[in-house]
Specification:
Layout lengths: L1 H21 L6 H8 L4 H5 L6 E4 L5 H17 L4 H12 L2 E5 L2 H26 L5 H14 E3 L14 E7 L11 E8 H6 L16 E2 L7 E2 L8 E3 L2 E2 L8 E3 L2
Parallel strand pairs: 1-2, 2-3
Antiparallel strand pairs: 4-5, 5-9, 6-7, 8-10
Length: about 250
Amino acid sequence: MKHVGGIEQEKTINSKTRVQKHGEVFTPAWMVERMLDSDGIRQACENLTATFLEPGPGEGAFLCEVLRRKLKMVGEEYSDTLGQYENFALLALSTLYGIELLEDNTQICAINMYEVFRNNYESMTCSFGRGQKRSVQDSAKTIIAKNVVQGNFLTQQNPKGEPIVLTEWQSLTKPTKVTKTIKVIRTEYTLDDVVSGRKNELGTTWQSVPKTIQSELFDVYKFTEKNASVNMRYVTSRIVSVYKEEMEHYA
C-alpha cells in the first residue's frame, strides 16, 4: 500500500509541477460533456465536416469525446455497408486537430484518439461479421499523427524551431448518404497559413530541412530525401489509402 501511495504521491507532485511550469490542467469528463452539449457546439459535434482545432488538448479529453460523437453519427447515418462506414469514419477523424506543448501529452492524446476510433470500428465490424482492415487502421494512424502535433501555439513553432505544420484532408467527393467511397487530397499548411486564412494549392507540401523524418508514435510513414524535393506534391487518393502517402513530381 505504501508503494501504491508513493506512486500516487509522485503523480500528484508531478502534476503540481506541471501546473506551475506549463499551466497544465485536465478537464473532468462531466465538464467536457456539459461543454460539448452547449447549443451550437453540440450540433457541430454531429456535423461530419465541421473542423475542430484545439490548442493544448492535453491527453485528448475534448477531441476524443468529439470523435465519439462524430463516429456515433457516422454509424447511424453512413453505415449501409462496412466500406461506407470506413470511408466516412476516416473523414470524420480527419476533421479533428490538436497542437500540444508537451511531448508525452501529444503521444497520449494521439493514442487515446486512435483507441476511440479502433473501438468504434471494432464494434461496427462485429455487427457486419467482418474483421478490421489494416489499411483503415494505418490510414487512421496516419491522419492522427499528422493532425495531433507537438508545438507551441503562441510561437507557432515545433520543438525543433520549425513552423507547426497541419494537414488538410480535402474531400473531392461530395459526402452524401449514397456515397460509398471518399477521395481526398492532402495539403499541408503552417499554423501561420491557417491563422492568416491563406489557401495553398491542393497537394502542397511544406518542405523541411531534415532528409528523413519518421513517426515515433505510429511507425507508418516516412519522408525520404526524394519526398523532400521541392518538386513533389500529394496526389488524390481514396481516404482508406492515405497511409501510402503517395506523391508525384511536378514541373
